[in-house]
């Protein structure tokens, strides 16, 4: 591999640009704004504010999406899901379920689910926008 190519790869890796571009692309496809350039500028401004702790990072899923996902998992309408369903939902969203502190006999309520998904998404956003 040529030195210039290796330097380019290192630059991309160090600045986490593939992750950033992937997330920006996902946001565009999810929201499908009429003015994509303005949308991206707004997203990057929110990222900048989030880094200064003046706002929140832009998220791919809003609260209504998370609630809809929970209701799909809670097919009997019991108001809770199993930890296995919770872990699988996180994996489906591309989020890590490794550090969950949830016992196998616990019931995951909507509030716990929403908070957990929000926390995991926030971790991904912070990591992607460093």
From TrEMBL:
Domain (EF-hand) ranges: 61-96
InterPro entries given in the database record: DD_EFCAB10 (IPR049760), EF-hand-dom_pair (IPR011992), EF_EFCAB10_C (IPR056587), EF_hand_dom (IPR002048), EFC10 (IPR039879)
Cited Gene3D superfamilies: EF-hand (1.10.238.10)
Superkingdom of source: Eukaryota
Annotated protein name in UniProt: EF-hand calcium-binding domain-containing protein 10
């Amino acid at each position: 591999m040529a030195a210039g190519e290796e330097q380019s790869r290192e630059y991309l890796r160090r600045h986490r640009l593939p992750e950033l571009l992937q997330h920006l692309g996902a946001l565009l496809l999810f929201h499908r704004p009429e003015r994509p350039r303005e949308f991206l500028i707004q997203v990057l401004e929110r990222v900048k504010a989030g880094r200064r702790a003046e706002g929140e990072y832009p998220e791919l899923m809003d609260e209504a999406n998370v609630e809809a996902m929970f209701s799909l998992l809670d097919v009997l309408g019991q108001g809770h899901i199993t930890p296995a369903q919770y872990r699988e939902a996180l994996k489906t969203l591309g989020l890590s379920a490794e550090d969950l502190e949830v016992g196998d006999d616990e019931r995951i309520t909507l509030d716990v689910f929403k908070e957990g998904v929000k926390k995991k998404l926030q971790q991904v956003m912070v990591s992607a926008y460093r």
